[in-house]
UniProtKB/TrEMBL annotation:
Positions of the UniProt region annotated as Disordered: 265-286
InterPro entries documented for this protein: AAA+_ATPase, ABC_Ni/Peptide_Import, ABC_transporter-like_ATP-bd, ABC_transporter-like_CS, Oligopep_ABC_C, P-loop_NTPase
Keyword ATP-binding carried by entry: yes
Residues that span the membrane, as ranges: none
Major location category of this protein: membrane
Superkingdom field: Bacteria
Recorded family membership: Belongs to the ABC transporter superfamily.
UniProt lineage: Bacteria, Bacillati, Actinomycetota, Actinomycetes, Streptosporangiales
Gene3D superfamilies: P-loop containing nucleotide triphosphate hydrolases
Name of protein: ABC transporter ATP-binding protein
NCBIfam families named in the record: oligo_HPY
């Protein structure tokens, strides 16, 4: 299949998702806030990548930018986003809609808010599948996400569903067209633990069956370690460490990754106190002059305050740190428990 809007076949070596040097600002209270500060990320066809970091690190903005779904207050200042070779921010509206429909699925944190409250579930799913989809086809897609009574769900309105059911519906709609890439932004944050695992099982099993790549934006390091082949750690609007999940989360090379892993709830025994990341995340109004983590980093040197780190390749991962390879981190306990 040719790349939408380009008329060429995608190269086998070309990543399915390729984000390079993306800069996004928000207008807020008369000033500009920098949400992404030259963020870069690539995802191969069929890959599973977890994007982790504290609130405010830029995860959700990155996810929204992939589908050109940034709010009106946001502005792309620089950088590129390509999906299957197509430049997302340069596509004409009709071509963009086609790309979203045929190549890209999105699952958001609040499933009810992502559904139309005025339409029954079946009618909304039919809009994705096409008006010719009959009740049997609608039911089959709802069965795929393990809803017990799909015909009854198809007749319901969003407000009549539980949070877990609504999220399964949102997943069914996102996966109905067999997208090549699924972006899931904290899709289980509002669910209880048991339902959370069930919903994640649905997401990853459907994606595996369809060969769909996943970008999962999450705070849950333990779940990311279990389910994703790669992890990208975000801080200050940049990806500061990117590599195999098992290595990044158990043998971190960046000071922020090490601090994040130590603060993971899965590491704490019963009654034990977590070790939080010291300080607070930055609020940037422009490009960070140096390393954005420097004010919170116990290993920072003068260079870190004034010189932006560039990616360094080490142990099969890319790391944004001037002191990579020389820091005496104690390996955190496994976060897969």
């Amino acid at each position: 299949m040719s790349v939408a809007g380009t008329g060429k076949e995608p190269s086998p070596q070309e990543p399915l998702l390729d984000v390079r040097g993306l800069v996004v600002d928000y207008a807020a209270n008369g000033r500009r806030v920098r949400a992404l500060d030259e963020a870069s990320l690539s995802v191969p066809a069929g890959g599973t990548v977890g994007v982790v970091g504290e609130s405010g690190s830029g995860k959700s903005t990155l996810g929204a930018a992939v589908g050109r779904l940034l709010p009106p207050s946001a502005e792309r200042v620089g950088g590129t986003v390509r999906v299957a070779g197509a430049p997302v921010f340069e596509l004409a509206p009709a071509t963009l809609r086609r790309m979203r429909r045929e190549r890209l699925g999105m699952v958001f944190q609040d499933p009810v808010a992502s559904l139309d409250p005025t339409k029954r579930i079946g009618a909304q799913l039919r809009l994705v599948l096409g008006r010719r989809a009959d009740k049997r086809v609608l039911a089959s897609h709802l069965e795929r996400v393990r809803l017990r009574d799909p015909r009854e769900v198809a007749r319901a309105y969003p407000h009549q569903l539980s949070g877990g059911m609504a999220q399964r519906v949102a997943i069914a709609m996102a996966m109905a067209a067999g997208p090549e890439l699924l972006v899931a932004d904290e899709p289980t944050a509002a669910l209880d633990a048991q339902v959370r695992e069930e919903v994640l099982d649905v997401v990853f099993s459907l994606a595996a069956d369809a060969g769909t790549a996943i970008v999962w934006l999450s705070h849950d390091l333990a779940a990311v370690a279990r389910r994703c082949a790669r992890v990208a750690v975000m801080y200050g609007g940049r990806v500061v460490e990117d590599g195999p999940a098992g290595q990044v989360l158990t043998r971190p090379a960046h000071p922020y990754t090490a601090a994040l892993a130590r603060s993971a709830p899965a590491r704490a025994g019963h009654g034990a106190r977590l070790e939080p990341v010291p300080g607070r995340p930055p609020t940037l109004t422009g490009p960070s002059p140096g390393c954005a983590f420097a004010p919170r980093c116990a290993f920072a040197v003068e260079r870190c305050d004034r010189e932006r780190p560039e990616p360094v390749r080490v142990d099969g991962r890319d790391v944004l740190c001037h002191r990579v390879g020389e820091l005496p981190f104690t390996e955190p306990e496994e976060v897969t428990a």
